[in-house]
């Protein structure tokens, strides 16, 4: 074997006896080799070096330890000459062997593909997985523990194919989404004990797999995908956010999805769910690109959540190309042609705080949600606001438009909706808690509780105290309150389309931006007070779950802070959200790509810092 940190997978391929003899010079039972697709008549020493450089650049599994000997995979009837006894050619039409690192068993000539084992140092994974030999398109667990190791296959096994646009992209999946052959824990050991393994993979994940994506593991979710602080986790350790001093909250409920992509450069994408912000906020605090798609664009079969009225599936990624490619494919695999960004007109909506002087910076639980009012002296702005302002200026320049400042509370009062309160908080602040808690009970939680009690002789399933309290709240929500919440949802949806988006140039693409995170520390060991079960004020996230708008998290800067953990200056992400009308998902990806191409956004690195 090339290294003890690798494992092998059998393939339908083997070497002929005359070639096995070339492995006879080695002492090990298994010999590490390299396969190369080669369509030239000669293979020289400099060719080998070129191949090595290319493999080292393209792959993180292959290394020079696999150069015991080299197999050239050649077109039929071509003969290649080489001066090395350790290099030989075979007909690639007869041998089912992929290019890349391989292992050959000397006694039989059987060939195995290789996967490198990577440690889950940030406790992001529930389990690592490998394809099942027993069940077609199914999986088996390679390891399930508090700190797993994850097998990652060589990217060289997955050449670029037009029929598989996501070929070789490594993906981790939130443990509230079904994978065939595996149990789904929904963030709860009690749930895991109650239900059997899944008999089918969720269509949204199968869609990615059919396009060539490689699923490497399941990542942690909070209990029943609830919004929880790290201190509320009862069954397992909350994932560690790698940014800054490594002791910041990764937010919820897709904390595992965010932590994994932010921590591990060997993972390309993770899939999460977002009901009230569970992709957008974890992406922001973990310094990642995060996608909440237009509601209804992604099939939710096989996806657990509080309510399909608000829930959806999206992705996390570090680089814009991968974010756009995978996220765009998830919502529309046809990828229709679209006008170039440089040829479009844009409205850039810029929600601001009120201009009051005593408290010019109101925010909920320490998180900004609005831009500073234009009348506020910029010398009072935070460092994050100054960094975000530079991004907004770049957007204005690149999109050839000027921001349109407005205060959403004032706009709501000035354009009243018949039958709705003039306070936006009173109008829609109650909607999320009423719909999600009552729906969670009726769409799965109460059935689970009853089944668990039946199986355990009346014993109640273990739950975090805050989760149990929210479910009790949901049991008291009346049908009249639900009807009122649904009516408010429809009213706000129509107001957003007709008044907020509809008040500006209708021929232009309307974009709404707002500050997502501003680099404020949120230590994972702090205990929340929970003086209230929910934030029953208007949330800027409402455009995603009430209106169904696509909402993308864009990291734009790092902000210094003095860590009480390390006693040193560390850096945390500052991010913005980019929102469009429902159905404009691909147009938003075009904008994100355009901003990256022109320097307004950057690709990100894994680890404590976002930028290399």
Automatic annotation (TrEMBL):
Gene3D superfamilies assigned: Amidase signature (AS) domain
Domain Scytalone dehydratase-like protein Arp1 N-terminal: 26-85
Signal sequence region: none
Protein name, UniProt field: Amidase domain-containing protein
Domain (Amidase) ranges: 161-588
């Amino acid at each position: 074997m090339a290294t003890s940190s690798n494992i092998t997978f059998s393939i339908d391929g083997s070497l002929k006896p005359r070639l096995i003899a070339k492995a006879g010079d080695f002492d090990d039972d298994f010999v590490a080799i390299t396969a190369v697709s080669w369509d030239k008549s000669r293979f020289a020493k400099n060719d080998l070096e070129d191949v090595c450089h290319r493999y080292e650049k393209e792959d993180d599994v292959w290394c020079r330890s696999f150069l015991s000997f080299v197999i050239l995979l050649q077109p039929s009837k071509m003969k290649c000459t080489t001066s090395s006894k350790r290099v030989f050619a075979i007909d690639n039409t007869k041998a089912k062997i992929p290019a890349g690192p391989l292992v050959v068993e000397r006694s039989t000539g059987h060939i195995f593909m290789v996967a490198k084992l990577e440690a889950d140092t940030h406790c992001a994974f529930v389990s690592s997985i490998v394809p099942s030999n027993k069940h077609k398109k199914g999986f088996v667990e390679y390891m399930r523990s508090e700190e797993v190791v994850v097998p990652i296959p060589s990217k060289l096994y997955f050449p670029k194919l037009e029929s598989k646009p996501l070929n070789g992209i490594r993906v981790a999946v939130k443990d509230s989404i079904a994978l065939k052959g595996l149990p789904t824990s929904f963030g709860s050991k009690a749930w895991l004990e109650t239900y059997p393994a899944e008999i089918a993979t969720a269509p949204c994940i199968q869609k990615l797999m059919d396009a060539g994506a490689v699923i490497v593991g399941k990542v942690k979710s909070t209990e029943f995908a609830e919004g929880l602080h790290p201190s509320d986790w009862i069954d397992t350790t909350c994932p560690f956010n790698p940014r800054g001093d490594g002791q910041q909250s990764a937010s919820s409920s897709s904390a595992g999805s965010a932590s994994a992509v932010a921590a591990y450069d060997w993972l390309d994408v993770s899939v999460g769910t977002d009901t009230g912000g569970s992709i957008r906020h974890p992406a922001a605090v973990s310094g990642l690109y995060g996608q909440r798609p237009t509601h209804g664009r992604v099939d939710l079969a096989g996806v657990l959540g509080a309510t399909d009225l608000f829930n959806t599936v999206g992705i996390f990624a570090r680089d814009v190309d991968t974010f756009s490619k995978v996220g765009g494919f998830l919502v529309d695999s046809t990828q229709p042609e679209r006008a170039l960004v440089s040829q479009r007109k844009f409205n850039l909506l810029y929600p601001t705080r009120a201009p009051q002087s005593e408290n010019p910076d109101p925010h909920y639980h320490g998180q900004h949600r609005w831009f500073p009012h234009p009348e506020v002296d910029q010398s009072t702005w935070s460092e994050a606001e100054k960094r975000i302002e530079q991004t907004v200026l770049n957007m204005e320049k690149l999109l050839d438009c000027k921001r349109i400042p407005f205060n959403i509370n004032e706009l709501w009062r000035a354009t009243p909706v018949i039958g709705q309160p003039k306070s936006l908080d009173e109008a829609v602040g109650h909607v999320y808690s009423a719909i999600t808690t009552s729906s969670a009970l009726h769409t799965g939680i109460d059935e689970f509780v009853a089944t668990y009690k039946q199986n355990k002789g009346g014993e109640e399933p273990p739950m975090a105290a805050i989760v149990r309290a929210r479910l009790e709240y949901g049991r008291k929500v009346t049908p009249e309150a639900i009807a009122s919440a649904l009516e408010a949802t429809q009213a706000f949806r129509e107001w957003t389309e007709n008044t907020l988006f509809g008040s500006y140039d209708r021929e232009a693409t309307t974009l709404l931006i707002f500050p997502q995170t501003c680099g404020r520390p949120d230590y994972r060991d702090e205990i929340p007070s929970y003086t209230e079960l929910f934030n029953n004020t208007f949330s800027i996230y409402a455009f995603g779950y009430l209106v169904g708008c696509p909402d993308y998290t864009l990291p734009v800067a790092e902000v210094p802070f003095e860590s009480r953990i390390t006693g040193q200056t560390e850096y945390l992400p500052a991010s913005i959200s980019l929102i469009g009308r429902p159905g404009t998902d691909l147009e938003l990806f075009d904008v994100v790509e355009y901003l990256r191409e022109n320097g307004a956004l950057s690709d990100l690195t894994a680890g404590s810092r976002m930028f290399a």
